Amino acid sequence: MISLIDTHTHLFAEEFDEDRELAVLRAGEAGVTRLFMPNIDDTTVESLLALCRKHEECYPMIGFHPTSVDTDWMNRLARVKEWLLSGERFYGIGEVGMDLYWDKTYRLEQMKVLDEQVRWALDYSLPLIIHCREAYPELLEVLEPYRTSGLTGIFHSFTGTADDAARLLEYSGFMLGINGVVTFKKSSLPEVLKEVPLSRLVLETDSPYLAPVPYRGKRNESAYLVKVAEKLGDVYGLPLEKIAAETTENALKLFKIAGRSF
Q1: CA distances (Å), 109 to each of 44, 73, 144, 247, in order?
Q2: Cα separations (Å) of 78 from 64, 82, 117, 149, 154?
Q3: In this structure, is the dihedral angle defined by the CA atoms of residues 167, 97, 252 and 24, taken in order, positive or negative?
Q4: CA 134 from chain center: how many Å?
Q5: What's the burial of 255, exposed, middle or buried (CB within 10 Å: 0-12/13-18/19+)?
Q6: Helix ranges, 125-224 (H)
Q7: How much is the CA Rg of the chain, to the nearest whole Å?
Q8: What are phi and psi for residue 99, nearest 5 degrees?
Q9: Domain limits at 223?
Q10: Residues forming the annotated binding site for a divalent metal cation?
Q11: Binding site, residues?
């Protein structure tokens, strides 16, 4: 049986309130044996930890999402940092980043919040899980001073061009997170990935969002990760077993603390 790692799932979100336990079971039955869960903000940590305490295959991460940055961002970020300092075990700093798609009001504040969380990742030697939407210039401006710092992580939900991929992969400690978008009919991602080594990719769902074909338009879940892996098999001309083995190895390299616990 194949073994896959979902490096980005929000199974603690309210969309799973009716069947969360079944979703975890379905993931395992599909061969998705490890589920890494980025936090969203100060309001979601307790539900995240409650799920992860129940299931040893669930690994919590801690961070503050850019779309949660508002007028009270300083206090809210401080509350998230309290969790980081609490003694709870976290496996990454995320979900963090920049998002100017809906609103540019807090552009500078988002950059400050990201920069602080980059420093958390370095201080605790944890991978950084980066979200970026319509904000590559700002993201790269924040990251530039850390180019040679040893920072590691995932550029989550990568959907950019070949040039974008080349620029991001200059950060040698980072992987590109590939999800259901790669299966979409009009996606240019399969062509872009032909220029990207499989050694720099990890799999993710971003569930409950971005369900792959043939589930597009429905709620996503970790069990559907196999569809992403199958599509990558088509892109690279490799069997599913090889895609599973390589992307799992890539994820374990990144999540070294988790890797030592398996």
Answers
A1: 21, 8, 17, 34
A2: 10, 6, 11, 24, 24
A3: negative
A4: 17
A5: buried
A6: 136-143, 162-168, 189-193
A7: 17
A8: -145, 105
A9: 4-14+41-259
A10: 8, 10, 95, 131, 156, 206
A11: 8, 10, 95, 131, 156, 206
Whether 238 is in a domain gets the answer: yes
Q: How many angstroms separate the CA atoms of 12 and 207, rounded? A: 10
Is-contact 149 193, C-beta < 8 A? Answer: no
Q: Classify residue 21: in a domain, yes or no.
A: no
* Residue where the block lists tokens 């991978």: 127
Strands 93-99 and 4-6: unpaired
Q: Is 22 domain-assigned? A: no
**198 touches 176 (CB < 8 A):** no
Distance (Å, whole) CA 63 – CA 163: 28
- Helix ranges restricted to H, the chain: 20-29, 45-54, 73-84, 107-124, 136-143, 162-168, 189-193, 225-236, 240-254, 256-259
Q: Which domain CATH number covers 134?
A: 3.20.20.140
Per-residue pLDDT of the chain (262 residues; tens, 9 = 90+): 799 999 999 999 999 999 999 999 999 999 999 999 999 999 999 999 999 999 999 999 999 999 999 999 999 999 999 999 999 999 999 999 999 999 999 999 999 999 999 999 999 999 999 999 999 999 999 999 999 999 999 999 999 999 999 999 999 999 999 999 999 999 999 999 999 999 999 999 999 999 999 999 999 999 999 999 999 999 999 999 999 999 999 999 999 876 666 5
Count how many domains the chain has. Answer: 1
* Structural domain contains residue 26: no
Host H or E run for residue 157: none
Q: How many helices and strands (H and E) does the chain possess?
A: 10, 8
